[in-house]
Amino acid sequence: MTEELHEIRLHVNGTSYALTVPGRRLLSDALRHDLGLTGTHVGCEHGVCGACTILVDGAPMRSCLMFAVSAVDAELTTVEGLADADGSLGPVQQAFLECHGLQCGFCTPGFLTTITAGLRDNPRPTHAEAREMVAGNLCRCTGYQNIVKAVERAAELGAGR
Amino acid sequence: MTTKLVGAKVQRVEDQRFLRGQGRYVDDIDVHAGTPTLHAAVLRSPHAHARVRDIDVEAVLDVEGVHAVWTYQDLADLSVNLADPLPLLIPHPALTHGRTQYALAKDEVNYVGEAVAFVVADDRYLAEDAVDRIRVDYEPLPPVVGIDAARAAEHLVHEDVPGNVGARLEQEVGDARAAIADAPHRLSLDLTVERSASTPLEGRGVVARWDPDIGRLQVWTSTQTSTGVRAAVAVKLGLDLGQVDVITPDVGGGFGVKINHPWPEELLVPAAARALGRTVKFTEDRREHFISAAHERGQVHHVEVGFDDDGRLLGLDVTFWHDHGAYTPYGLIVPIITSTQLLGPYKPQSYRVVFESLYTNTVMVTPYRGAGRPQGCFVMERTMDAIAAHLHKDRTEVRATNFIQPDEFPYDQGLVFQDGRELEYDSGDYPRSLEMIKRLVGWDEFEAFRAEMAAEGRRVGIGLACYVEGTGVGPYEGAHVHIETTGKVKVATGLTTQGQGHATVFAQLVADELGVPMTDVEVVTGDTRRMPYAVGTFASRSAVMSGSAVHLAAKRAKEKVLRIASDALEADVDDLEIVEGVVSVKGSPGASIDLGTVAVLSNPLRYAFDEKSRAATQFTVGDPGKPPVAEDDEPGLEGKDFYSPERSTFASGMHAVIVETDPDTAEVRILKYAVVHDCGNLINPMIVEGQIHGGIAQGVGGALYERMAYDEHGQLLNASFMDFLMPYVTEVPDTIEIDHLETPSPLNPIGVKGAGEAGVIPSAAVFAAAIEDAEAHDHPGLAITGMPISPSELFALRQAQEPLLKQHEEDA
Description:
heterodimer; A: Ubiquitin-like (UB roll); DNA polymerase, domain 1; five-stranded mixed β-sheet; 5 helices; 5 strands; globular; B: alpha+beta; Aldehyde Oxidoreductase, domain 4; six-stranded mixed β-sheet
């Protein structure tokens, strides 16, 4: 019993990677274990917690619900791609630091990618919109108050502009 | 002087790593060592209770990419001790019928999820394919599910445990039953709390590598105790302690569940690494975490209470039944904590408590943040509310009548706590806390607000709950501080970190004590290579235990710095100060020496390796008439110390909440949440407040949403994030008002008490009180006696109340 393998290329954070994977290889596993981009975390493998959220052509997607072979034509952005070009923290990352928006850090990459996309669509969210922006991600540590603050701080720092 | 860091809202140093995706959690560890890592998967029991008649692994053996498949029969060949039951970690004389599982089930399974077979393959996908091919012949046995079934004992979980009773423990101060019988007022209550679980976003995981060249095992595991796992792995695999290193990398949340050890996989993965000569990894998936880790909270309580006209507790008699699931690896810690911490800030004139710890065919129970305290607080605070209602008194007044007063500390409750020591409170100021929480939530103004809302047809209620939390239990923690010749300071403490910001708060303590910039301090936790003596992270103990140890170790290092510097600068120790990593003579800044140079001088050298170390070689320094290292000294600029307190320290606090209940849908909305919190001196208020926020979110979950839904067959029906309702942002209070009271602990050098669990302890109690209060107008007499409460359940309580109300109207 040998599995059929596919030679594919993934475009992640501006770099193109060649890899050989079976059709059932999850995109999250390919990123983490084939490409070594372990910043994307897997919290439930059924698309609910949001820890594995990455940007697929700019839109937040659960990488645990995609196959690697179905991502070949897309530009992927993971948490490793969110820092500014000079290596300093990007505005959403900086806001999380300032607002104590993280504790164990496991869910954080999914929030960072989600908010990056959210603020791009809505650079000046109201308080209710800031809450709504993170309402699809689970965090077990922070109680979310500081995450919402971080969304508002990131907007102040010009994350969406 | 440099600004003091302790007490300041210092930003976390670990965040840089986490925010860039550079955290290293256990599943991120990849030790190639020539060959790729292998992956393990576990076959788990689909039955809650069954005899295992036969396991057929034939179909797996030929699968390409499979390296091993083991059942119980294979364990003894791997290591003799591996075939024994897993350790019973905390024995107790009352635990007369303690039972633990085997690393792989032997003859019988006792919960859905129990490990039955173990497969190692090239990757997790193949390992799971292989698991699917294993055929097990089970003979199903009748399962025992829930406390009622366990007590009825129509069926037994373990044949040799009569009545399903693992333990019965009673403690009494005074004669509570007689006091109740003689009291002018008496009430009885029945109160229930359902099961929930820690549910960290990262599940369990373990990676192991055997190095045959040096006969040494390295284990990375997502644990709350590296030293505990190390000792267990060594014993079970027949290795010397010195052959095993356990490293806890970044941990994606623990909340208690990761204190239990060794999990079957924590032994099987290292055994596989040794047997196969390859690095082996196991990463738990979410369903596995629900059905094969641990739960907590499930208890049923009966209260008898007698009190006087002021509401003073004359006698309190509590009996409760604790569902500990199929096994008891963590002993009686949870019910002991409920039975003692139930008393909170109050001093009943007599108290009797008795519990039975019961077996059921469900996932075992070990501590989840709060560890029995939320149940105890729920029982005590519901009782206080009932007394106030009975006497038509303000709920805060009845509480105040029963408070231990500030001049009564240390206050001995006369009971034995979870650490085997007296339940003696060290410090606190409960009347002041009450004053603060009333002001913060607007207690005295609430009736006006209620009337205002009622005019709009809205129903609001207010609730308040008090707790005392024994934190910082022993036996000890230690710390090692090493000042390198670069002037950088390396700190190690053995307990582990799961998001509490230890790298920041311990660095704050060291930077203040040594007078160095925080950026020069690096903290390592949970690595047995760096600190082999440690206990673990639980019971809100890290700041108290390791914080104190780190402080003491830094102090020792500082003493040595000053001694060496005083020789070098020819000045008295008392005239020296350290600022920004430079030792100088006070008042004459020219006479100074940096810490790196002091470190060079502390270690007499034969060989120079750079410009700086030339200064410490044998023809350069030292008095030829003396040994280069004095008899009572040692080389190097280090400090090591341990902190081991006589007993726990007792944090306290009060929560209050205002809720609105929907008259039609029975939905509960949180309008305001207020907290007064006393954890002694604050090292980093930002981190303490973060802990409170997180605790409250888990408390909201436990009060309104989370439960483990077992059916009568012992199947967990909601073992996914789709069905187990963990709060999202939409379920938690938008803001939390926090006020700090700081009554320092006299038991440790930094005056701190623990802060980790406080947020979750009063939640069930405070929500029950507020919801009941909101309902009081339309449904007088409606009592909230069980948690969590869903809108459907509240609706049902209203329905049950309707006929009574009608009857009442007709009678009138």
